[in-house]
Design brief:
This protein is α/β, with parallel strands linked by helices. It is 19% helix and 15% strand. It contains three helices and eight strands, in the order H-E-E-H-E-E-E-H-E-E-E. Keywords: Repeat.
Length: 192
């Protein structure tokens, strides 16, 4: 939904439409329910990798030092650990999932500030389960952001600049037990 692939239909919300799509995919045996979540069938997963290898790029912690030269053409980074000094190569990234075990070090707020200033095309940002206590004001630079997942983070307050993300459709804050203050301009998030 964060990429805009699922749209509301008539009186059905985008979430209801997506739920129907998942049900149809399950009935056609294209996805399976395993360990409490839906997963793509292995053969279909491999086919998808083959077809989308030029648009998607996956990096793991063993690849941090070897960022591909063509990475700036990749539009989606999944399960990412970024070689931060090379983040300028990822300007057109649209999806970013940061795994918590790979992103726990001092100065993380400055790192996020640099990423948000560079990755202005982001539509989906998942920081769930990471150890971030604050989000930098530069999150307001992510004008195309539609999905922000901050579940189970020790974040204490959200920056006022978050309220400039008019396209934000989903904001997940479940389990943010230390979150005490919401920005005053939350009503500006008209797509939420």
């Amino acid at each position: 939904m964060a990429q805009g692939y699922v749209q509301p239909m008539g009186r059905k919300s985008a979430e209801d439409v997506a739920r129907n799509y998942i049900h149809e995919l399950f009935n056609m045996s294209l996805i399976q329910f395993v360990n409490g979540k839906y997963v793509l069938h292995d053969l279909l997963h491999d086919l998808g990798h083959l077809i989308l290898q030029h648009d998607y790029h996956m990096m793991g912690c063993d690849l941090v030092q070897r960022v591909p030269e063509d990475a700036h053409f990749k539009r989606h980074l999944l399960s990412v650990v970024i070689a931060l000094e090379k983040s300028y190569k990822f300007r057109s990234v649209r999806s970013l999932l940061i795994q918590p075990s790979h992103f726990t070090f001092k100065g993380e707020s400055q790192v996020l500030h640099n990423l948000f200033g560079t990755m202005k095309c982001l539509r989906m940002l998942d920081l769930s389960y990471c150890g971030f206590e604050t989000l930098p004001d530069s999150i307001g630079c992510l004008k195309h952001l539609r999905y922000l997942d901050l579940r189970k983070t020790p974040i204490k307050c959200l920056p006022e600049s978050l309220c400039a993300l008019y396209k934000l459709q989903t904001l997940k804050l479940e389990g943010c037990e230390q979150l005490n203050i919401l920005p005053k301009g939350m009503s500006n998030l008209i797509s939420l």
